[in-house]
Design goal:
Residues 1-22 form the signal peptide. The protein has 708 residues and is mainly alpha-helical. The protein has helices at residues 4-28, 31-34, 38-49, 56-62, 70-84, 88-96, 115-119, 179-192, 215-241, 249-257, 259-267, 274-297, 304-310, 317-320, 322-346, 353-382, 388-407, 425-446, 451-473, 485-488, 490-495, 502-517, 527-550, 560-586, 591-597, 602-606, 609-625, 635-675, 682-686, 693-704, and strands at residues 110-111, 128-136, 155-156, 160-161, 167-174, 196-198, 204-206. Strand 3 and strand 4 form a beta hairpin.
């Protein structure tokens, strides 16, 4: 008879064995476990299809056995032999490699394979890498545009790599194979079928990135965490220990970094120029949408033909007119700079030219420098993918080469198609206009009879230049958001240059001067005049919006005079329409449009537009570079993706603003107050009263409202 102890022991063993059996059965039944049957199944299939063995032409495409280096050759021979034996890791390498893309007749030339499957190959006697093999001459390449400055078009619109019309296949290979090894093996194969082979240092990606730690990397790894820690410490002191600090310089410095204080400022609202807040925020959303569409042009899609034909559709007009969103910022630049300059001069401020420029640099540079450092150091290490090196690695090298053009704010003239940050050209335009502004503003204030002639001359000069540049260079009208090289080539010669933006800037200066003259006065207009102005602006803006699609029709012939006239007048007419909206709203004639633009919800977001503009390109570029397969393009999908990028940028922007923008703005104010306090104007003295918060915020607008 069994003892109670024996029964308990047997019962315990049953309790242990039953779950174990269930777990074992569950593991064996999992998808990952069942996938191990694939090599044996493929082996049986291959023996039936290829009784004499796998064809060498197929194997040569995936195993570089003719490489230069012995190590690459040996590893490739091992890979070849194990693949013939259908060893799981070798079959996995082959399976993760791309094949002939589907949808060639729909413009899909890319098969990126399975990047994760390649990177997770186990049991192989060597490390692996994923390489993009590009084979040219599948179709006739697009003809480079007239007067293009380089032999082959590699980058467009600020340094974004062109999506070449080449048969591109991602192949999982031994990491011991260098670019030279791959050229040695694949060039004869490509030549055999009348293809050209294209490989460069951005073609391959490895699991362990070969990024050397530079001194700049070390600087970023130290300074960025220190700034975050400083803001955190200052915020804690402000919240709990501020009463231990007497009023003085140290207390002011601590408060400059306090996220609590700066966050409260971001959330404050006022009624001064509130319509500009709405225009500013909506404009940055408009620009983000246009930039996303530009990135659609350079990413693989199974129906790329649809993308190439998108810009002739009527509903693409909002994308094609994205340049007008940039014009809005230039208009706001002129309005606020002129208005507050004249206000300060009228109040008795002594104009200090060096401080005028230094003030602007301090306002703009810290957040800008953060973005440059991120692009050069941290961003390339964050993610990986088959095209990560192709996009992000390339831009990292461009930054190392041309960073100085960004720091000096000349990157819109010096190698504008090889920029560290594709959208940073606008910051240079903005800074250059700021540098030029005293030449306009001082005569505007001192010579009472000159304003109307000076402003008119500036607008006319801007229009003449905007007409002459495309006429002389034979630039086509239309948007740089285009898959056509001929439209994209005007990016460097016209789109990013300061001298082609003078017309809309002059209109903004004119509006700022009018608002200065009418400040504190009741502007009276009869209803008929208001209605006529609104109707005229609506018709004019609608025509500007729709006419651009005419120039993007395939059957539209190039007309030099018509294209130049459109380019020369379009932005100035748009600036006049926007100026009317601002003027009407500020004087009580805005109607529902004015009420919408003045919605207080826009004001906190408006204060973040500079940072949103800076960070959104990184967000969109990361999305672009992380693509691991050709997707299907649909307008609704694009809207969903754009909404996600907008949300991500808005969430990131406050963090960047609180750490890299606002503390330095506050420090600059503290230093000016400490060392230049005796030189304050009457307006500045009046703002020392905490009760006059609105005027303080208005004065802050003068140097950061023309958001980049």
């Amino acid at each position: 008879m069994e003892s109670p102890v024996m029964k308990c022991t047997l019962f315990g063993l049953l309790l242990f064995l039953c779950p174990t059996k269930a777990v074992t059965s569950s593991v064996e039944d999992s998808l990952k476990y069942r996938l191990r049957d694939i090599p044996s199944r493929l082996q049986g299939l291959a023996e039936q299809l290829f009784p004499n063995g796998l064809p060498s032409e197929l194997l040569d495409l995936y195993m570089p056995t003719n490489a230069n280096s012995s190590l690459c050759r040996n590893h490739s021979q091992v890979y070849l032999q194990e693949f013939k034996n259908f060893t799981p890791w070798a079959v996995q390498m082959w399976d993760s490699s791309g094949k002939l893309p589907v949808g060639l007749f729909y413009g899909n030339f890319y098969h990126l394979g399975s990047f994760e499957e390649c990177m997770q190959v186990e049991s192989a006697p060597f490390k692996v890498q994923n390489c993009l093999m590009q084979f040219g001459n599948l179709i006739r390449p697009q003809k480079p545009p007239k007067n293009w400055f380089q032999g082959e078009v590699d980058t467009i619109t600020g340094g974004i790599p062109v999506l070449k019309e080449r048969l591109t296949i991602a192949i999982c290979l031994p990491s011991s194979c260098s670019i030279q090894d791959l050229r040695q093996h694949y060039k004869p194969i490509a030549g055999k079928y009348n293809f050209s082979l294209h490989l460069d240092k951005y073609s391959c990606s490895k699991r362990d990135k070969d990024l050397k730690v530079t001194k700049l990397d070390m600087f970023s790894f130290v300074i960025l965490p220190c700034l975050f820690a400083t803001v955190l410490l200052a915020s804690i002191i402000d919240a709990y220990f501020l009463h231990y600090f007497k009023r003085g310089l140290l207390r002011e410095v601590i408060l400059s970094f306090s996220a609590g204080r700066n966050g409260n400022y971001l959330l404050k609202t006022n009624d001064s120029f509130s319509s500009i807040d709405g225009i500013r925020f909506l404009s940055v959303l408009w620009i983000m949408m246009s930039h996303h569409s530009l990135f659609d042009i350079v990413k693989p899609a199974v129906n790329y033909l649809d993308i190439s034909q998108l810009y002739s559709k009527w509903y693409a007009t909002i994308i094609l007119n994205g340049v007008l969103g940039v014009d809005n910022f230039i208009i706001i630049n002129g309005v606020l700079l002129t208005y507050y300059f004249l206000i300060n001069m009228k109040a008795g401020t002594k104009f200090n030219l060096p401080m005028f420029y230094l003030h602007r640099i301090i306002r703009v540079f810290p957040a800008y420098l953060f973005q440059i450092l991120m692009t050069m150091t941290i961003f390339p290490r964050m993610f990986s993918g088959p095209m990560w090196q192709y996009f992000v690695g390339r831009h990292r090298d461009i930054c190392y080469k041309n960073w100085w053009t960004n720091v000096l704010f000349i990157n819109n003239y010096v190698e504008p198609d090889f920029q560290c940050i594709p959208s940073s050209w606008y910051l240079s335009v903005d800074m250059q206009l700021y540098i030029l502004s005293p030449l306009i503003l001082i005569p505007l204030y001192r010579w009472k009879k000159s304003p109307k002639y000076l402003i008119t001359a500036l607008i006319v000069l801007g229009n003449i230049i905007s007409f002459s540049v495309p006429y002389y260079n034979e630039f086509p009208a239309g948007s740089v958001v285009s898959s056509n090289y001929d439209s994209a080539r005007k990016h460097a010669g016209q789109y990013v240059t300061t001298h082609t933006r003078l017309g809309q800037w002059g209109v903004g200066i004119g509006l700022g001067y009018i608002l200065f003259l009418t400040r504190g006065k009741q502007v009276t207009m009869n209803k008929n005049m208001v209605s006529i102005c609104w109707i005229a602006c609506t018709v004019c803006a609608s025509c500007i919006f729709q006419v651009i699609t005419y120039f993007h029709q395939d059957e539209t012939p190039y007309n030099r005079l018509l294209s130049s006239a459109y380019t020369g007048l379009c932005s100035t007419l748009w600036a006049i329409c926007v100026s009317w909206v601002i003027f009407a709203t500020e004087n009580g004639y805005g109607g529902p449009i004015g009420r919408f633009l003045s919605w207080k919800f826009f004001q906190p977001l408006s204060k973040l537009t500079y940072v949103i503009y800076l960070v959104h390109v990184g967000v969109e570029y990361a999305y672009l570079a992380l693509i691991k397969s050709a997707a299907h393009f649909e307008v609704l999908f694009t809207l969903r993706e754009t909404a996600g990028e907008i949300l991500m940028s808005i969430l990131v922007a406050p963090v960047v603003a609180l750490v890299f923008e606002m503390p330095f703005i506050n420090l600059e104010r503290v230093i000016r107050k400490k060392f230049l306090g005796s030189q304050k104007s009457r307006v500045q003295q009046s703002t020392d009263n905490p009760a006059d918060e609105k005027q303080i915020e208005n004065l802050k607008l003068v140097n950061k409202a023309f958001v980049k």
